Amino acid sequence: MELMVDYITSLDGYGAAEGWPGWWGLEGPEYLAWLGEDSKNQHTLLMGAKTYRLMHGFAPADEADDALGTMQKIVFSNTLTEPLGWANSRLVRGDAVDAVRELKETGEHPLSTIGSLSLARSLLAAGLVDRFRVVVFPVITGKTGQERIYDGYPDVVLDLTESRTFDGGIQLLDYRPRLLDAPLPPGPGSA
């Protein structure tokens, strides 16, 4: 099964910013339509406890209106207890890397992280990530930015497989990641 790390970010690499609304207030009809279509794809969501609490808190009270509620969710946590309150959520304790390695071999649907920065970082470092998708919003939140996404990441080359622009400024970038043991050597024409 394929594993995709999936982020939304500001241009300067933050996952959120103090005082800003979701999507930095810049979501438009093209992006929202794509997001609705993308959420219809069957995949299992992987998340940590912090993301679970946040996303479950955003979920509509009416389960019929909760697109994420119908999806299978695996929550990696040693602090949460069962039963989890969000529909179709399963708690996994212990080493997430080992559990995801097994899921990739035995799962029924592709896997996708949602938020969960440390989980995504550990899965990438373990060489388990097949796709790295980022939606970049055209805003810099240097003063108010929170949750720098790429701090602590290994060195990675990203081979672009798809790109798209929504609503005149939001960028979708879909990559295949390649972990590096060392920085790339200088290319032709380098000084």
Describe the structure.
By secondary structure, the protein is an alpha/beta fold. The protein is built from four helices and ten strands. The strands form two sheets. It has an eight-stranded mixed β-sheet. A hairpin with a 3-residue loop joins strand 9 (156-166) and strand 10 (170-179). The longest helix is centred in the middle third of the chain and has 11 residues, at 96-106. It is globular, with a radius of gyration of 17 Å. The N and C termini lie far apart (42 Å). The model has no long low-confidence stretch (mean pLDDT 90).
Whole-angstrom Rg = 17 Å
Mean pLDDT: 90
Oligomer: single chain
Global morphology:
globular
Major sheet: 8 strands, mixed
End-to-end Cα distance, whole Å, is: 42 Å
| Widest beta sheet: strand line-up | 5-4-3-6-1-7-10-9
DSSP, total strands: 10
Low-confidence stretches: none
What fraction strand? 25-35%
Number of helices: 4
Helix share, percent: 10-25%
Compressed to H and E, one letter per element, the order equals EEHEHEEHEHEEEE
Judged by helices, strands and strand pairing, the structural class is: alpha/beta
Which key features would you list for this structure?
alpha/beta, eight-stranded mixed β-sheet, single chain
Outline of the structure:
The chain is α/β, with parallel strands linked by helices and 191 residues long. The protein has helices spanning 29-38, 49-58, 96-106, 117-125, and strands at 3-10, 14-17, 44-48, 73-76, 89-92, 111-113, 131-137, 145-148, 156-166, 170-179.
